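REQUEST FORM: STRUCTURE PREDICTION
Request ID: SP-0412
Submitted by: Lab K.M.
Chain count: 1
Length (residues): 474
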Amino acid sequence: MDDRQQIQLENSKPAITPTLFPKKKFKSIMAIHLPLIGKIRRTTPLAVSVLAIGLIGVGAGVYWTTRDRVNAADIGELTLPVKTQALTIRIEASGVVEPIQTVNLSPRTSDILAELYVEQGDQVSQGQVIARMKGDDIEAELTQARARVAQAKARLTRLRNGNRAEDISQSQARVTQAEARLADAEARLALAAERVERNRFLTGQGALSRDELDAAIREVESARADLELDRASLTEAQHNLSLLQRGNRVEDITEAEANLQEMIGLLQAVEVRLEDTYIRAPFDGVINQKFATEGAFVTPTTSASDASSASSSAIVEIARGLEVVAEVPEVDIGEISVGQRVDIVADAYPDKIFEGRVRLVAPEAILQQNVTLFQIRVELTTGDDLLKSGMNVDVEFIAEQSRETIVVPTVVIVTRNGEPGVLTLDDNQKAQFRPVTLGSVMGDQMEILDGIEAGERILINLPPGQTLQDLNKS
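STATUS: Completed
RESULT:
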């Protein structure tokens, strides 16, 4: 078997083995199974099918030939010049349209859904009442709480305002009357005492009987008793007048103030419970799902449930805005930054290109099928009127516009011992392996970041008399 037959036989082996990714348009890593060819270190975004076709062409494009000698004409046929080209780097990925924010609305306490004011697809505003839970018992408690607050306020007002002038005047009149009664009692006692002394003299002279003297003495005792009673009445009237004139005690007012605050607190607690029966929209958005119907028993949880069930754990789902969530391999994440332009094509609108901007690059990676990925959130600048939550889309992150760089045909890239490179002619016109640093793949062109300069020539065929075995030995 000659060299040409050996090369053709080895080129008939499987050319590539793709590394699978969970998203259909993630960057792919390919391995070329040929003598002198190992693995490409890094490629850039391109659909797996396109890259596979380009690399399979190695068997036809890099068709090593043997000749007897090398002359100037042969060099022109065996090599091609390295050129620079303006490349637009695009990183492709698949994504899903998702709401920017989603919340399941449920009540604070388990109860019956009395009224539902929205339907699926309705636009709602922040604070808008979405539904109302049953709350008849709470309304009754609210009436009682308001009455207790009114009573506490009235008592405090009365204590703060003090006694009325009419009450003080009446108390003063009672004091005056008590003083008058006391004066009368003192006069009666004095008169009765004089009568006793006179009767006592007359009895000694025999002019009056002993009974008449005793009657006068009893009158004195009665007058003295009336005097003590009138004196006590005057003291009490004076004390009451003094209390009315001084006003209420500070302690009584403080106690009334505390009682009022307690009643207000109880009222507020009932008002909060009543407000909790009204389910309001936390932000402007759209009703995505409806989980409960009027009359259903709803529990205060956050997970959604079937609307047909006897009890539901949420009433509706409300969503705000739309964005695209894509997952990009770790190898591409350095090309993506916040604010970067993104082209979006939805499966539902294959002929339309929507635009977006990178809003967020996840700070932490996730692992899917042994592939390290980063989640990217893309803000829509167009298409939010057509795209719907849950739609599948393909996205292209425009990493850099029109970058002048060295490019070579993808089919001339070979690897040796896992290191990528190209073949060039040395001073003796022998093929030699030149290691290079690979960049992006765009179509059938490969970007070269380092290892070769523009204007140099690279081999597309082996010089006459050289074989792959010779290169392997070298």
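NOTES: Residues 1-69, 303-310 have pLDDT under 50 and may be disordered.
Reviewed by: T.R.
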